[in-house]
């Protein structure tokens, strides 16, 4: 039965302490919950599940889940909980150059799948995972304020601001891009400013999204329209609009009517007029990558380890792949009676994930430069490339396979 700690906390020893109860941290805890490992999850926010109701306002933050991520959630037993709230499958994808004529279209049916992926609000994912943890052996600690850490002979001590303390053999940083665990462990990271800010919100569109994820590359940055479920016969999309900071200033200052008009023009009115918009949010875009994924019994997953531009929607999927790789290594070590914090265990995790993550970071960096280039020759090449790729089933099949995170296309 689930244990929650807030004030009356008794110091305990754990095998694994996961700092961060977001999507990645909760998924890792649930992945390890069937082992004999004693696990605690620590977060500053509530860890009691609060499922999203059907008519609740849309969250401005969504994820494009790949087939590989969906399969993980099915194995963890939480996919049905997500479906009971709100998920939106997309069967098609349309990508085009807003400054040219190049366009490429992807369709799930061409590779024998019913959908390319699912757009799911981040709170739906997190609350479903927390619901899955309710009846597990994992303990959840809601710790207000900053955490402090101390290395011991046999592991680590984690102390909350109110004095709550406990010991663990393996300390996991799943606490986001500003990871306190990574900073305390002295794990360096490379960081590159993408020179863009993202504006995110949910908009009501005149026409149905056609079960399609749309993305247009503009000279100011990419703009994505991601499908979310209709409500009361009205049509909605979640948008991610990447803009240069000065242009983002202008767009954020627009009133609702002017914003909807500017957004519709940028999107070429492919879904008709933009009728209304929810509150807009803005954040800077950065590529970050930890130079090491572990150090002396401390290991990083998800955004604590790497962040990328959202143009391909791969951020949370990379984090979930981290979860699969790390949980696999820890489960094997547990079954063998091996040291879960051993360098040979964490080193295998790093070898499995670092190359794949670096490849994705490099690809996103290349895409950003390719579509932000003003050179006429580069523009001609990218438009020609899009047209050639659109005419090749083999190329599109390979792209779909990579984007879906599947090993075989049936």
UniProtKB/TrEMBL annotation:
Pathway: Cofactor biosynthesis; ubiquinone biosynthesis. One of its GO terms (molecular function) is 2-polyprenylphenol 6-hydroxylase activity. SUPFAM superfamilies: FAD/NAD(P)-binding domain (SSF51905). Keywords: FAD, Flavoprotein, Monooxygenase, Oxidoreductase. Residues 14-358 form the FAD-binding domain. Transmembrane segments: none annotated. PROSITE patterns: UBIH. Pfam families: FAD_binding_3. Its cofactor is FAD. The keyword Plastid does not apply. Its EC number is 1.14.13.240. InterPro entries: FAD-bd, FAD/NAD-bd_sf, Ubi_Hdrlase_CS, UbiH/COQ6, UbiH/COQ6_monooxygenase. Signal peptide: none annotated. PANTHER family: UBIQUINONE BIOSYNTHESIS MONOOXYGENASE COQ6, MITOCHONDRIAL (PTHR43876:SF7). Belongs to the UbiH/COQ6 family. NCBIfam families: Ubi-OHases. This is 2-octaprenylphenol hydroxylase.
